[in-house]
Amino acid sequence: MTATKSRTYGLASNPSEWAAHRRAVVFSVHRMYPGVDAERAATEGLGELCRQIVMRGAVDRPAVVWCEAAVAAAARMRGASGVAA
């Protein structure tokens, strides 16, 4: 992460940095759950991160929280589709 003066809950407010995190999240989901829509899981994970920020304020290690939430979303999606892991 580059040093910027303006930060939003630990992630830089620079959209290009968010885009870089998104690529990493999508890659992680795709690697762990091939065949699941990794883009959708990343979007759901970002939604979960935003919910946590709204409910609790600042979140430690938001990129990690986002990735974990996306992986959990992918697991739910896999389970809902009835495909074995």
Could you characterize the architecture of this molecule?
The chain is mainly alpha-helical. It has one domain. The protein has helices at residues 15-32, 38-56, 62-81, and strands spanning 7-8, 11-12.
Brief rundown of the structure:
The chain is mainly alpha-helical and 85 residues long.
What distance separates the N and C termini? 33 Å
Report the radius of gyration as a whole number of Å. Answer: 13 Å
- The helix/strand order is EEHHH
Gross geometry: globular
The major sheet is characterized as:
2 strands, antiparallel
The unreliable regions are 1-9
Estimated structural class:
mainly alpha
Spatial strand sequence of the major β-sheet: 1-2
Strand portion, in percent? under 5%
Question: Helices and strands in order, then pairings?
Answer:
Elements (H helix, E strand, L loop, with lengths): L6 E2 L2 E2 L2 H18 L5 H19 L5 H20 L4
Antiparallel strand pairs: 1-2
Short descriptors:
globular; disordered N terminus; 85 residues; two-stranded antiparallel ribbon; mainly alpha
